[in-house]
Design brief:
With about 200 residues, this protein is α+β, with helices and mostly antiparallel strands. It has helices spanning about 1-15, 20-30, 40-45, 50-65, 90-100, 105-115, 120-130, 135-140, 165-170, 190-200; strands spanning about 70-75, 80-85, 120, 145-150, 160. The chain is about 55% helix and about 10% strand. The longest helix is centred in the first third of the chain and has 18 residues, at about 50-65.
């Protein structure tokens, strides 16, 4: 009887693609930039909506009872991880210290792309640089150098632009004062065609 139960657990784990439903939900939520709805999570895990809702609530309570540094909250019609409020002093200290640290080469390159192509989506920035820019985007957002600027009409992808703090750090009054780089780039219409082709995998 025990062997039958073990085999059933193994089959369920293989079908789910994770050790458990709780583990699968945690993995998906760690990747989310915006709150994920219970319906989306249920579709991704191939489990009933009610089961997913119960596991999410249990995880949230578990994190709170254990005093973890993060919290799982239901907001804006979905679930997302957040830093626990009690940990705000250490987070604020880290952010302030980070503002005084020098940007990496990857951050500088990504910031330059956004400055000259804004408003621009994360996908287009990645296509231009040829690498994943998720971590760098988060760093630039945290430092207040870029901000969200709406969504693309077709893909609904988040658009990014530089902030007034970015101008302040460069010591310029407006983006018009950025040095010209046209001679180093292909024609803008050609660049858009290239980016579209990359996005479509052509």
């Amino acid at each position: 009887m025990a062997d039958v139960e073990v085999n059933a657990d193994v089959e369920e784990s293989e079908e789910l693609g994770a050790p458990s439903l709780a583990a699968a939900l945690e993995a998906l939520l760690l990747l989310a930039d915006e709150p994920m709805s219970v319906v989306d999570l249920a579709q991704a895990t191939r489990h009933p909506v009610d089961d997913v809702g119960v596991v999410l609530a249990n995880l949230s309570n578990e994190y709170t009872q254990e005093g973890r540094g993060f919290d799982l909250r239901e907001v804006a019609g979905g679930w997302r991880f957040y830093t626990r409020a009690e940990c705000s002093p250490v987070v604020e200290r880290w952010v302030v210290d980070g503002l005084n640290a020098r940007l990496t080469q990857a951050s500088l390159e990504t910031l330059a792309v956004i400055a000259y192509r804004q408003p621009v989506s994360r996908g287009r920035v990645a296509a231009i640089r040829g690498v994943n820019v998720d971590g760098v985007i988060k760093t630039l957002l945290t430092r207040g150098l870029i901000e969200e600027a709406g969504h693309e009409d077709e893909s609904h992808a988040i658009l990014y632009r530089t902030t007034s703090y970015f101008l302040e750090r460069l010591g310029i009054a407006s983006l018009d004062e950025l040095p010209p780089i046209a001679e180093h780039l292909p024609d803008l219409s050609e660049l858009d065609e290239v980016l579209d082709a990359v996005a479509l995998g052509e």
